[in-house]
Amino acid sequence: MSLKFSDFKNKHKGDPFIILGTGPSITKEAIQEITWIPGVKLIGVNTIVGSLWDLRIPLFGYYKGRNLDEDCYVDFPNPVPFKSGINYDLCGTRPAELNYLVVVDPPYHAAFRKTHNNFDFIKYAPADTLFVPDNYPQDVFHDPGRECRFHLGKQGGVTVDEDHIDYSITTPYLTCLLAAYMGAGDIGILGVDLTMEGNMGSIGAVKTMNNHFGRLCTHLYETSGVLMRNFSDIGKLDIPRMSIRAFSDLSRLK
Known about the structure:
The chain is α/β, with parallel strands linked by helices. It has one domain: sialyltransferase cstii, chain A (Alpha-Beta Complex). It is built from 6 helices and 11 strands.
């Protein structure tokens, strides 16, 4: 039985939220800095779990039962999966806590065909809750009791309620709306760089996403005082930039 979407309304009222995409600005240094923001809630999208793993960032675990490989575990401080044959030095690395994961790409998506980012990272994702569209395939996650399904609303819209989340052509957009629904004080964005090859990096796609994100940024500030800020100093996402340190300082003042 999946969780009710309405139960998440204002669940984290006033807390800072960070949206983690999968672009090149996701670095070990940036993630380490984010983990020190007081009360921060992290929401990742799609293949972010595998990306964090490749960066050798340990995640507070929600791994129960069989995981990626039976012989690939380390207790740091909870069981997390290890890749065979790779020597990970986690000494001095602060674990990150991925509170939520939004998965829109289906299990057969090309992104999951890479050996370093296969769907098992999603299936056993160490997140408290996995948010998926209501038409997402059934019975693909370990412990389906963590699933929360939602309806997709209007493309390019700026509303979210008990019935739907509006969306754009990139998953972090609806994830920002989800954060606002859960009561975000402010929202930081990392890894939404729009620099990848293919459709997402095309001129038309970048223009569409910047129009959508710009409208959402204005809407959230005017209606609830929520600031959306881009932590990346690369890429083409055209919303106001802010350093992680400045965002952390701002969160402490609220």
